[in-house]
Amino acid sequence: MFVSPDKYLQGAGILEQSQGYLHQLGEKVLMMADEVVWPIAGVDFASYLENNGFTVTRAEFGGEAYVEEITRITKIARDAKVDMIIGLGGGKTLDTSKAIAQALNAHLVIAPTAASADAPTAGLSVLYTPDGQFDQYEFYSRHSDLVLVDTQIIANAPVRTLVSGISDAMATNIEAKATAKKHGVTMGGGQATFAGRAIAAECERVLWEYAYEAVESNKAHVVTPALEAIVEANTLLSGLGFENGGLAAAHAIHNGFTAVHGEIHSLTHGEKVAFGTMVELVLQGTPHAELNKYIEFYLTLGLPITLEATHLDQLSDADLLKIGALATAPDETMKNMPFTVTPEMVVNAMKAASAYAHGYESSHEIRPVFVNKALAMAGVNQ
Fold first, then answer.
1. DSSP tally for the chain: helices H, then strands E
2. 269 part of the active site
3. H helix or E strand, kind and range, residue 11
4. Active site residue 168
5. Is 7 labelled a binding residue?
6. Per UniProt, where does NAD(+) bind (predicted)?
7. How high is the pLDDT of residue 373?
8. How much is the pLDDT for 382?
9. Is 359:382 a contact under the CB 8 Å cutoff?
10. Residue 88 near residue 96, CB atoms below 8 Å
């Protein structure tokens, strides 16, 4: 099985070049964005649409993708009798817009304002409880009609979001390879195609080649070929790669983190996936030469791959075991690993991954291209 959005458009200023594509989908729009995104991109985009013949109903997203929020905004859209939903913003905004479009059988346009995750191209949502704990994956009968990725907006977004997206994307091929070895089921609901596996592999190749230059471009707020390459990797290649290649340990461990409270939840999705990916590499018994490549990559990007950097050092062994237990639950993507993983194996691999990262850093000079200010302010060293 291979699944994907109908159309993907990427480029600087693409939002205000999109009316021709959008008119093919309808005229009455519900545009949804959170309080941060509205002044950055929402007001101008809504005005552009209104000036080009669209009727726009504006809805402010509350910040968490959960059932009650979906119900609230669905009512706004139904009352306005819209025929198109535009989700503008980050992953949780986009995931919520997917659920609303499905409920109304409306056309769906996805417009990410950061390349922080691969949610834009996926035909599923990650839903949470109102207090932010992982609840469930919600799968939809169809994908979005159009994905609009404005790279000038992304160039102006915080660098931390791009780095988080790079981390999330780096998990794609690692998890796809594990799923293929297991002959596991992809997030699309079938066996991986050669196309899906090739996209996942290309995603990783692009990351190795362009990540550092893309971060420097983002820091300078300029659109360059390197930035365009990484935006595509973070968004399109990673999205198609994970949905058509499969998830395994890295994202299961990310979801396992919701079993505990604490400072780990101050990290972004991609930052948590970075450590989850390291744990998967350890579980798989990755040879040291290959493992060191990933360690250097993550440390150079300033990503948290130790217990201290993820704040997990503050937890007891009993709490760590809760993470392991949730990560290995029967319905988790850990089932796509080519061997049985126990909660105890997860805990041991977390401790080992942290030790390996510390060992590498102590014997190598690392010059990060991005210093995570949130971690630095917390006094955390990698």
1. 16, 8
2. yes
3. strand 8-11
4. yes
5. no
6. 34, 91-95, 113-116, 124, 128
7. 66
8. 46
9. no
10. no
Q: Which two tokens stand for residue 258?
A: 């919701």
In 62-211, beta strands by DSSP E = 84-89, 107-112, 124-128, 134-139, 146-150
Q: Is 71 annotated as a binding residue?
A: no
Q: How far apart are CA 86 and CA 379, in angstroms?
A: 40
3-state secondary structure 23-46: HCCCCEEEEEEECCHHHHHHHHHH
* Structure tokens belonging to residue 183: 């002959």
Cα angle 277, 258, 215 (rounded to 5 degrees) comes to 45
Residue-level pLDDT at 136: 86
pTM equals: 0.93
Q: Which segments of the chain have a pLDDT < 70?
A: 373-382
Q: What are phi and psi of 32, to 5 degrees?
A: -120, 130
Tell me the three state secondary structure of residue 252.
helix
* Residue 114 assigned to a binding site: yes
Q: What is the DSSP string of 261-318?
A: -SGGGGS-HHHHHHHHHHHHHHHTT--HHHHHHHHHHHHHTT---STTTTTGGGS-HH
Residue 331 designated active-site:
no
Q: Residue 245 in 3-state DSSP?
A: helix
Cβ contact 61:34 at 8 Å: yes
Catalytic residue among 107, 143, 168, 311: 168
Residue ranges of domains in the chain, CATH in brackets: 8-155 (3.40.50.1970), 159-377 (1.20.1090.10)
State the pLDDT at residue 277.
98
Handedness of CA 325, 327, 333, 334 (dihedral sign): negative
Query: Is the Cβ–Cβ distance between 74 and 50 less than 8 Å?
Result: no
Q: Is 148 annotated as a binding residue?
A: no
State residue 366's pLDDT score: 87
Give burial (CB, 10 Å; 0-12/13-18/19+) of 340: exposed
Please give the distance of CA 10 from its chain centroid, rounded to a whole number: 17
